[in-house]
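Hi U.,

Before I forget, here's the chain from the pilot set. I'm dumping it here mostly so it's searchable later in email.
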Amino acid sequence: MHILFLTDNFPPEVNAPASRTFEHCKEWVAHGARVTVITCAPNFPHGKVFDGYKNRFWQSQIVDGIRVIRVWSFIAANQGFALRIFDYVSFMMTATLASFFVYKVDIVVGTSPQFFTVCAAWIVSRFKRIPWVFELRDIWPESIKAVGAMNDSIAIRLLERLELFLYRKATCIISVTHTFKSTLTQRGIDSKKIEVVTNGVDLTQFIPQKKDEHLSAELGLQNRFVAGYIGTHGMAHGLETLLEAAQLIQSRPGGENILILFLGDGAKKTELVANAQYRGLTNVLFLDSISRAEVIRYWSLLDVSIIHLRKTELFSSVIPSKLFECMGVGIPVLHGVSGESAQIVLAEQVGQVFESENPIQLVDLMLDLKADSSRINIYRRNGIEAAKRYDRKHLAANMLSILTRLVNK
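Structure:
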């Protein structure tokens, strides 16, 4: 079976869509599938092409058995709605054209969050007369409104009509959460065509580690209780709450040696650094993104991991992929997201839940865990055990079986 996968994020980018796609495709190749990925030059999140790559109309390479074709796109930083749309549309067009030169394809997959890539998958399926799959990672464009990037307008309503059109036309929708499936069903989409394959963790990479003492010393973290946020610093993540918590905790008994570490980049990174400087915070540390191979060293520095999204109803339907990475490395979670992901945290007993955008609750939980090493050890053990149920190998095999069934059908 030859799978054509369209995505505008792929390694060496290190965000969640890139990781999921790469890890799934790698497993499909290991199971005997032929996989071609069409993507663009790596540039997320700064909108600058990575060193060693060029923004050309066609580049091809083999990565872990996957044929990767990179096509030209208009590249814009992860900010500014109009420029980002132009970025998405340009990739949709060049990915569609490139697909015509990929032969003997049995099925095409287009992944969100934005669905212009998914539009390309639909067009390709029509020309090649093959089934196509909408991999649903986000309810878009609703998420645009949720982060305040754009208010309700004619443009948004047109995008929503296109969204429903694609849901209806897809041969199959593979959702990353059960809540997404429920939402689509309520909007009139046939539940029989919706499958759920959650995010997970690569247990060959995300495994428990001893604290990297050399790196800890290099960053000045000795004798500090480190609470870390690792991931994209975007509009959706509400990381101002963590800065408010950092300011509050400086004056709380027991909070003097707590440090909040931020690792990653995104549209809000510069603003967050300026905010921390304005507040005069001495208990935060901002680090830029590093390669996926290196990130495990930084996970080892954390005593607890903070996961947070803005307080909106939509985000109660998502499951941040870093939750599973926390489990894999055995780091307790302080989880500032409601809904399905919070239920996983509580059911697996891998950490504690606080209300989104509530810095006081976050401070209380950090102080409680800092004072209770036995509970931290329990959460660590539970996380390592729970990670086995979200092993990316098993999830990739599950998705491959769905694709195989669609092709055979």
